[in-house]
Amino acid sequence: ACGSVVSALRNRIRDGNTQPKFLYHASDEYDRGLLDELTQLGKLFVVLSPTAIFFMGFDQQGSTWTLQAEKMDGRFGFITLYPDQMQFCNSFLILILVPFTNFIIFPLLRRCALLTTDLQKMGMGMTLASVAFVMATLLQLKIDSTLPFKEMVANEASVWTVNTLPCNLTVWFFEDGKLKQASEHYEQSLIRFTYDYKHEVYFEVTPGATCQGMLAPNDTINITVKQSEAGKASYLYLYLENRALRYAQQSNSFDISPTESDCYLSFFSAAHKSTFHIGTHSYVTNSSHILPDITAESGNGLEVTASVANKRTDIVAEKKFDAKYGGVYLFTLTEGFEGISLEHEPKNYSLNIYTIEDADMVKMYWQVPQYIVITLAEVFVLVTGYNFAYTQSGTGVKSCAQAIFLLGDSFGNLFNIIFFQSIMAYLSTMWQFAVNALVIAFAAVLFMILTLFYTPVEPVH
Q1: In the chain, fewer beta carbons within 10 Å around the N or the C end?
Q2: Cα separation of 91 and 411, whole Å?
Q3: pTM greater than 0.85
Q4: In angstroms, what CA-CA distances link 221 with 162, 215, 345?
């Protein structure tokens, strides 16, 4: 095939346009029957080229659709499904929908004189793929409405400041040397900052008016955040120690729902050698006062007990909380206000729980409808496309015709890599789905236009 094209191009340039078909310029080296088959193969390549966009969307079942499932509740009664396991829907549904369409849907369409040709069926399949991404967009809108904070895009990381003091602070947030945000940080509260993970980030924290008597007015600390990764979170725990403002930093952690466990727990203690007990499990903080990203099972009414080993005795604080499926929680153990003293050990400790991510409210089974539609689109495009490529090609190039059709899958994956490393990386998940729906709809329209200029040939058996 490549040789005939090279030969035809060389002869066309040398002799001019002397043949009714381009490849006929290679007639002196190749049989005209083969050249006719290769000409038909070129027509197939043109008319099937928009299917690459279909494959770009179809293959996202293993990427963006799985990421969508990470923000959903996978519990089905006594069974728990994890996000990547939802892909089994496609494999299961294809076994049902292939015979269902061949023996029920397609015969009914023929009786109604609808979608009577392979190209019409493929156009409908690409339209269904666009509809599937519209459904994914609407589902993502519902998921986003349950999230307490805006979703980060691909180039973003986050920093959470946790004010464990019994007074207000002022936090100045700098990104690449420029002041990006200044906030009053209320006592026992959280603030979330997002930034480009490649940029240098630091904070300046100063005591507020309510800290009078506990901190000196000029007791200011500057904090440089360690280099993070895209999509990861850092936590800055601000605490009081010997009447001085201190901080502890937890880097490259999570602030999104876990994918392989019920929930994430992180622990911070202003005291050294602290132990947190939840049920039958015990967790001891490290030398930096922190124990990050512990995976745990969800449950209601869980009792948390914190003990601090010091020179005199263990100081215990207790609290009950509901660990919800998909939650991310921080536990902080700090000195009680009444116990602040330079000369004595603290008289009491305060145990607080902060919710970073609450339970995933949307059930994972709401993805099933979009899986049904995308699998039906697969039947209309892939199964029909294989038949179309085989019957519309000559006897000597049928394998090449099948390869051309599968080449669309390769280009679809290439488009995914290009788009998601550039434009799509800066969009939220909802907008990624919306853009995919529009692009696939455009490809469906382009495909239908190309079919108007294609003349089917009689199948050769």
Answers
A1: C
A2: 22
A3: no
A4: 14, 12, 25
